[in-house]
Amino acid sequence: MSDSAKTTRTESVNRAKAYQLVLFPLNNGATNVYFVLVLSYIAMFGNGVLGLLMAFATIMVTAMRLCDAITDPIIGALIDRTSGKFGKFRPFMILGNLIMAVSILVLYLLTPMIPESMMWLRYVAFVVLYFVWVIGYTFQTSCTRSGQTVLTNDPKQRPMFTLFNTVGSLIGMGAMQFLAPIIRSNVGDYNTAAFYRVLAPLGIAISIVLTILAVIGIWEKDQPKYYGIGGDKAEKVKVSEYIEIIKGNKPMQRLMVAGAGCKLALAIATNVSVLCMLYGSMMGDYDGLYLPMMVLGYACSAPFFLLTIRTSQKHGQKASLEKYVRLALIMYIGVLVLLLFWRQGDPRFNLSLMGENGLSINLYTVLFIIFFGIGYGAYYSTADMPIPMVADCSDYETYRSGKYIPGIMGTLFSLVDKLVSSLATTVVALAVSCIGLKDLPAAETPYAAGMNWVVIVLFCIIPMLAWLATLIAMKGYTLTGAKMKEIQAVNAARKAAIADGKTMDQAMKMYQTIDQVPGEFK
């Protein structure tokens, strides 16, 4: 047996060091800064600051996703073919972040300087800069999904990635959601240029720091010996093979639906216009409710992070996702009922935390805190859970076909992520236009007839339907905890056989089931 084969046997389970598990998921935090900075505000910026038509500023964000059907496969293939001095993933993480930083600085800081007499140029700049940003976003966010495959394949460690991935997301997304209302109250409302001149540089600085830490986290693992079962050469997968991969990888199909459901629920329910309508227009106290309710949601998420890890380690990530999405769905039935009871001007059916004489909480608020807190905690802890499951689907693809193509798998999922995120903006705009609003609601927007029904649909019903789609998709998802252990054992045995001189085809035929795998790999 060759030395390389012996080494492969001793490294049949690839485990990450503690600092790697903590730092690399911060890449998700870095991109989630832009998730808030761009996808939560870009339509409001285009409509309120640049003066673009609301229909254009919102529908264009979704329409541009048609371009992703072309660009994402190309970027995925580029990642899979890259294996140079600086690794496979680090170059795309760094380049993607730089592209996003430059495009957003130009968009938010310079385009408002274009005179109104040249409105056509504002439209052109808005579209071009958004398209450039999308390319950078695909570069970096795809690495979060595909880089996990080299970080660890230990079924006990991958659920830990979910925790740190969610923490990273919380740092990036939470920082922006926390800073935004503070900047708004001191600088200007969400539809003013001054607001974006402050928020954009702060967000970019946070994202750059998180990216640097993520690069450190994956540095040691981003090398050929961790690339699939062949490892020494980059996969030459054609872009045209995308469709065949999707058709053959049934778990990935279902995960894309589940991921879309989780992302849609998060994107719409946390959309700034929806929250402005709920806490500002309906409840009449945006400044007094937004931050406390956001902190409540994050605080309630903490115990669920730990519960999802425990469930994932014992029963697999599929079981964990199903369990807590189901809990979120049940809790949001309570939130839905409370919003149906809301009556304008009736203090008994209105959220209230602080009054003129201090603390002022009614039964309606207590019930809302319970249902919303538990529901938000459960669904926020699962919102990014499909991300580490992409690594399972990538390992399954290696098990199924012998191909190590994390870039393609990552961009497949990224495409769904971006499509759903941008769709949320369009859905919100179409919903508010149905009640006659010409501009997206801001914190000071007065209540308009029918706004309560718009909030009910956007804040509750659409997320609940998205969670139902997630649960239906997961029913036929076959990559359970036990199945993943089998897949990792078979892949490890094949890798050792290839290192010992066997061809890929020989190794694939030699080890097809767990019964054929030597004991040291089980």
Automatic annotation (TrEMBL):
The keyword Transmembrane helix applies. One of its GO terms (biological process) is carbohydrate transport. It comes from the Bacteria. Keywords: Membrane, Transmembrane, Transmembrane helix. GO terms for molecular function: symporter activity. SUPFAM superfamilies: MFS general substrate transporter. Pfam families: MFS_2. GO terms for cellular component: plasma membrane. The chain crosses the membrane at residues 92-114, 120-139, 160-183, 195-219, 255-282, 288-312, 324-341, 361-379, 419-438, 450-474. This is Sugar transporter.
